[in-house]
Amino acid sequence: MMVSRHEVNWQPLSMVPTIGDLVARALADSREHVLALMEAQDRAYELANADLDRSHRVYSEQLEFVAIYTKQISLWRDVELSRDQRQAIDCIAADNTKLSILTWQVLALVDTLRASTIDVELGREALWRGASLELVAEALREEIGFLPRGANSDVLALWKRQGRRAFEAEADQADAEQPS
After folding, report:
1. How many Å apart are CA 132 and CA 128, to the nearest integer?
2. Where would a tag sit more exposed on the chain, N or C end, judged by fewer CB atoms within 10 A?
3. pTM of this prediction?
4. Exposure string (b/e) for 49-63, b if CB count within 10 Å is 16 or more?
5. What is the spatial distance between Cα 22 and Cα 13, in angstroms, rounded to a whole number?
6. How far apart are CA 125 and CA 166, in angstroms?
7. What distance in Å separates the CA atoms of residue 125 and residue 162, rounded to the nearest whole number?
8. Is the pLDDT of residue 156 over 70?
9. pLDDT for 12-67, tens place per residue?
10. How many other C-beta atoms are found inside a 10 Å radius of the C-beta of residue 102?
11. Alpha helical stretches, state H, the chain
12. Whole-angstrom distance, CA of residue 162 vs CA of residue 150
């Protein structure tokens, strides 16, 4: 449930340690998620749209919590604080700033990865299989800048049926078999 739909219950100073723990845990989780998404960039085709949709939903909600924490910190700073309380609140504020940056980074990575999920790749392959040979030839010309030698209807049909990766493997094999 989205936070913005609810009235916020502002917390007393006694909750500083609890809010500090919440922010610190969210920060640690966000760091791990950023690293996982960065590692997934080379194999985004293993991700499903549903995975990225969930990340987007969770981290969009987290942005709302970041805003709430920012306001809570401001409210705490408006009252008389001990030196220890001020230090604890300053630490939470610093972590909350980092949390905001990492949350935006997660959302940016999610948007980047969306272009290459398994769902997108399967959709592209389905388009190839349904395309006419003329459209496949035109797409091939656009993608690699020319129509390869010997790109007859059999070659275009292979491209259409199996997609670019299979075509490239077939072309590499054909080039290897040709005498220099």
Report:
1. 8
2. C
3. 0.66
4. eebbeebeeebeebb
5. 15
6. 11
7. 7
8. no
9. 999 999 999 999 999 999 999 999 999 988 887 777 788 889 999 999 999 999 99
10. 22
11. 16-40, 49-77, 83-113, 118-130, 133-144, 153-177
12. 18
